[in-house]
Amino acid sequence: VSDDLRYVLDLEALRALVQRYARAADARDYDAMAELFHPDAEIDGLWGASPLDEYLDRLRTTPAAYDQSMHTLGDPLVELEPGADVASLDTYAVVYQLASREDGSNATMGMRYFDEVERRDGRWRIRRRRTEMRWVTK
Amino acid sequence: VSDDLRYVLDLEALRALVQRYARAADARDYDAMAELFHPDAEIDGLWGASPLDEYLDRLRTTPAAYDQSMHTLGDPLVELEPGADVASLDTYAVVYQLASREDGSNATMGMRYFDEVERRDGRWRIRRRRTEMRWVTK
Amino acid sequence: VSDDLRYVLDLEALRALVQRYARAADARDYDAMAELFHPDAEIDGLWGASPLDEYLDRLRTTPAAYDQSMHTLGDPLVELEPGADVASLDTYAVVYQLASREDGSNATMGMRYFDEVERRDGRWRIRRRRTEMRWVTK
Q1: Does the distance separating the beta carbons of C7 and B5 come in below 8 Å?
Q2: Considering only alpha carbons, which residue of chain C is nearest residue A76?
Q3: How many C-beta atoms lie closer than 10 Å to residue C58's C-beta?
Q4: By CB distance 3.0 to 4.6 Å, which of A24, A46, B101, C134 could disulfide with A33?
Q5: Is pLDDT above 80 for C55?
Q6: Cα dihedral sign for A57, A62, A65, A67?
Q7: Nearest CB neighbour to A77, from listed C20, C96, C98
């Protein structure tokens, strides 16, 4: 496989990686979510920075404020040198949170995901994610 | 063309297929829509499952409840073995329905399209679509 | 590089081009925005048709009505003959305008970007953009 072909194959793998994240998050399937990160990954999100395990534990044990979510993602803007094993992704997301159990309201959030990804053993996963909440409407 | 190159060419063709669907739906161009499905396709949507012809007839003869629509799609998550002639697509969509003739209100729907697609005579089309409405806000 | 491989590399470059536009617009970085167009480009937008320089000057000198924006884009539908140096893009966009300084309200716009792009000196840029506002909700 040439470097050029490897490059487009890698872009497709990275695009699928963030789409899989959306589906795991919306299904609240935290085992599927864990598969998308390297075990030593760090997530810097709404709760500050934490290692992957802590982050997932917190998701698993925190009662969901909303009945369901839908993570709609734009195409990631990818910085990748052809042939490299690391890349940076910048993904726009609009996250719909729906039908709160507590007060019946909805929330829509404008997010931006900044991911550092790495290929290990032939497989791309996230090693660091920083999320930025740009706006929220209720 | 190698299997790897065929794979990325197929992903691009499938991506364009769902984008063409959005444009045909928003233009209410049901002939253009028909071109995206195999003649024996089945659509399992808001009205239950029906063959393509019945589904299109119903679209053609039902007065539109809204003046215009905009089908915004996320990138499809595609399951495709390199070289295969069948694939599965899972596409997130936010559908805006605007300016109702009846009551002036708008509706926004969170949808998910599950497509089984097949290449026949070198051309990818949908042979089965199942749609899932996840939420609607008015 | 074969024509088929060139084709998918070009699609990736064009996809990144429109994603870079979203980021430049949201950062109000008009120098970064200028880099995405050929110097002789024309933009036919909300203010009518104008050359790139006039358009950018107007953006630079017009006080922003909103505090921030988020341009979320669907995947562009690309018309490109393998090996060609020109292409047409049709991109759906939902543009969120937020936290108006004037009246505190938000606006969401359904847009469609029609871009004619050209490769010069090995680099794709926009030579003509026509924007269509399909709807706006406040």
Answers
A1: no
A2: C19
A3: 13
A4: A24
A5: yes
A6: positive
A7: C20
